[in-house]
Input
Amino acid sequence: MLTFVGLGLYDERSITVAGRDAVGEADRVVAEFYTSTLAGATVADLEAYHGVDVEVRDRAGVEQSPGDVLDDAEGRDVVFLTAGDTMVSTTHVDLRLRAHERGIETRVVHGTTAQTAASSLTGLQNYRFGKATTLPFGRSHGGEGVPGSVTDTIDANRERGLHTLVFLDIDAANDAYMRADEAAELLADAWRDDLAVAVARAGSPDPVVRADALSTLAGESFGDPLHLLVVPGDLHHVERDALVELAGAPRSLVGE
Output
């Protein structure tokens, strides 16, 4: 059995009860933190909380060399841990399909996702979000500025009146996390005075939610990672009120 468990958004306590049960009953626990991470917990914290050893795999160990994990899962209970919800990344879907090809039973125990948390914290309605996108570091895409795929996604969503969730790059190998102010500065080249919402440390006891013009957000600091950015589309009157009351948006930017 290979069980995929989402750890939730912030620390060792963000996991569901079902997820904790699965970890506690496992013969082997494997994790990856290159697609996302728990900003409020270390691997040692996870091991102490669950009373297990956690083996962390890098990207190559998951995508190119998962054979030993699958071998174990043929006769033992193996748990594969990720931050957030485990099946958001195509990496994990591929691993699950490899298990099925070998006749290995699989199970998914979901965790809270950044996308639902962004909707909940900002007050922007979940069904009014369009396609999400990821804003990478320049070194990740081999260029400067904002890739056309990012601006095209935001433009396409805005044409339909939809909000865009912008995931911010993680460079796990260098322990680097793009900040919302960095992202706002990059996007301000195209939409300087347009409204955006910075979300920091969703799932933690002290999340930050701040709405203002991209050029203004670019000059602010939002503290420790992880960060997200939302570029709103058309706003329902409840969403306008939510951004003003919950995120400090200037009334002049949300319209009437």
Q: What stands out?
A: The two ends are 54 Å apart (CA to CA). The mean pLDDT is 94. The longest strand covers residues 195-200.
